[in-house]
Amino acid sequence: MTSEERMRRDRYLARRRRRKRQRTIQIVKRCAISCACVLLLVFVLTKILLRDEKPESVQAQRNVFTQSVKEEGKTQEKGFQQKVIEETPDYTVDLLTPNPYSRPQMAIEEVKGIVVHYTANPGTTAEQNRSYFESLKDTQKTKASSHFVVGIDGKIIQCIPSSEMSYASNDRNSDTLSIECCHKDETGQFTQETYDSLVELTAWLCGKFNLKVESVIRHYDVTGKECPIYYVEHEDAWEQFKKDVQKYLDDHGTEPKTNLT
């Protein structure tokens, strides 16, 4: 083979190698694009499924709680009588000005539960949170309020009469009383002063409206919102709170007086 033939052969083989490399690169690119498309599709489908799942779980929680309320009502109709706390808790009455954004003056026909919340404003006082509810009549930014606010120092302020609805618990506004609790930091854990006042106030309300302790719920139990966050993240602490409310009723409550015939 002459040198010229060897050169032509080498050039031919070089072109074949280049074309083979190019084909290999194209195949790798196509595979990479296909894999990326598959991963993107899986990600999108996962997000859709998770998004659809959450409302269903929340709705399931609502259905379970609605059923428990119905059962509770049946129990009370059979003659349940909660103990009553004769000594009224120490609280300040500072009612909001009637307005469509925080005190709509819509009547509660029957109180069937008590909903515990946290303010989600670390370090704020009961007075400041009450002032925020009051300011909504002017700012009209949203609809929000609560029947009671418990401060970091344990002070209790009543913002709305128990005969009226507050804007606190979504579709349970019409048959529950709401209690907002202040807290020091992002954990949402209540101080001992806040906790003690909350236990006393909740027990007193249970007695006043003939409610079982099972009727005391979290905002979370209504909508799935992480409120009060500490009791959402620490289920054992929430169960202990209800036990402490029951203990307060047992220790300080008296049997309700009945009319003798």
Give an overview in words.
This protein is an alpha/beta fold and 261 residues long. 51% of the residues lie in helices and 9% in strands. It contains 6 helices and 6 strands; from the N terminus they run H-E-E-H-E-E-E-H-E-H-H-H. It has a 6-stranded mixed sheet with strand order 1-4-3-5-2-6, sandwiched between helices. Helix 3 packs across helix 6 (235-252). 29% of the residues are buried.
What's the layout of helices and strands?
Elements: H1 3-77, E1 92-93, E2 113-118, H2 126-139, E3 148-150, E4 156-158, E5 176-181, H3 192-208, E6 216-218, H4 219-223, H5 229-233, H6 235-252
Parallel strand pairs: 1-4, 2-5, 2-6, 3-5
Antiparallel strand pairs: 3-4
Helix pairs in contact: 3-6
Q: Notable features of this structure?
A:
6 strands; 6 helices; six-stranded mixed β-sheet; about 260 residues
How many strand elements?
A: 6
Low-confidence stretches: 52-59, 72-77
| Class from helix and strand fractions | alpha/beta
Average of the residue pLDDT scores: 85
Quaternary structure state of the chains depicted: single chain
Number of helices, where a helix is a run of at least 4 consecutive DSSP H or I residues: 6
In one word, what is the shape?
Answer: elongated
Strand content: 5-15%
Question: How helix-rich are the residues, as a percent range?
Answer: 40-55%
Radius of gyration: 31 Å
Order of helices and strands: HEEHEEEHEHHH
Task: Report strand order across the widest sheet.
Answer: 1-4-3-5-2-6
Main sheet properties: 6 strands, mixed
CA-to-CA gap between the ends? 130 Å
